[in-house]
Amino acid sequence: MAAPKPEEISHPPMDQLQGLEYCIDSNPSWGEAIALGFQHYILALGTAVMIPTFLVPLMGGNDGDKVRVVQTLLFVQGINTLLQTLFGTRLPTVVGGSWAFMVPIISIIHDPSLAGITDPHSRFLNTMRAIQGALIVASSVQIILGYSQLWAICSRFFSPLGMVPVMSLVGFGLFDRGFPVVGRCVEIGIPMLILFVALSQYLKHFQMKQLPVLERFALLISVTVIWAYAHLLTASGAYKHRPEITQKNCRTDKANLISSAPWIKIPYPLQWGAPTFDAGHAFGMMAAVLVSLIESTGAYKVASRLASATPPPAHVLSRGIGWQGIGILLDGLFGTATGSTVSVENVGLLGSTRVGSRRVIQISAGFMIFFSILGKFGALFASIPFTIFAAVYCVMFGLVASVGLSFLQFTNMNSMRSLFITGVSLFLGLSIPEYFREYTTAALHGPSHSKAGWFNDFLNTIFLSSPTVALIVSVFLDNTLDYKDSGMDRGMPWWVKFRTFKGDSRNEEFYTLPFNFNRFFPPS
pTM for the complete prediction? Predict the structure, then answer.
């Protein structure tokens, strides 16, 4: 038998991911695009409902308050997604609510001046205004870093090797949102996981009118089937004598969203009253804004690959961060109870459907705005049990992580330096946040527990984020360890042409602003 040729053993690196049906600037038919946009809207509901469901009761709010916060979050999420896809990075990314803001927000909720208010509704309003004030001030971090191009300058220290741990932990770092949540109601979660994988992977070649229906709409089909199954279990009394926690995770009638939702309600700025400002709250929130910035940077690079685009140039990345800062400012003005970041699950859906079209995401933003105004209809979809979303997250987060790992093809993984940086960054990126999580669960406060509350919030927020820890470790090691002689190993010869807008002719096709706005904001 003849010895295999080198090209038969290894695969050549590729600038753009192959095998996608539609890339960033190619569009499916309008009917297909609308159905895909609705699918992205359904997936975005998970986080948009989970965050207010967790926070609003702690703030003293009732079911009516929870519905209004969900509506507001979805409304602003739609606006931010449109702004990002039109004027920001222009990548097909949903900009939604972020869990990174939990530490400073919970710190505000437990502030003695707010926790001491006896009337629950008054406590809710005052806490919301305090969160709004902190978000408004903290948003200046991303606005300044983005529009001043400071983040573009910082990104010049990033290489493919340094960014791989960050991009992969954008997905892997969310492991606690996956199967641990599925396990809370296995009779719904596991069938959902199996059905979604079966439709999207094993039956993906099934076609109707030359359209791979099961692959393209696996999420919509599987959510509909399992949601109906969960409703059947609820209606048949399967959970009647089960513990309260099981009922909360399994039943389809426990969210109390539909009964509490108004028919029509348009969210508007300062709807909860005038924001209040506190320096300590704002400093703590700034850490979450930095975490959001780092996580979004990794997610944008993954999204560019799943949209079959080139990596976003430094100027475009910084522009996107500036608009994300505007998004957090809008979160503060409208009162969404949390800040914004790129929705990782929706980035994963680009790969699952093999459709990276920008138009699809813009249509999904339209659905977010539309259903946030029509309260009853939006509440119907928002009552899908969280376990169903968690089952999908198991696939989506894993897919995002694997795309991050795919950037290793541009580096030399036969180098001990590359192996050391990648391995240590990935391990510490998972291990350090896990230590902070376990410590917080046991002690009911983070490892940083000094008298300066803002300092505690800052450190605990930074080190609870896997991508942030990975960035600190990997970029430091990559720029200090045998730095001068390692350009080839780090993947810099490939990376350098994507640093500037004019470095690659394809950048103009993917990232030029619409309406000829590039005249006013010339790319660097």
Answer: 0.94
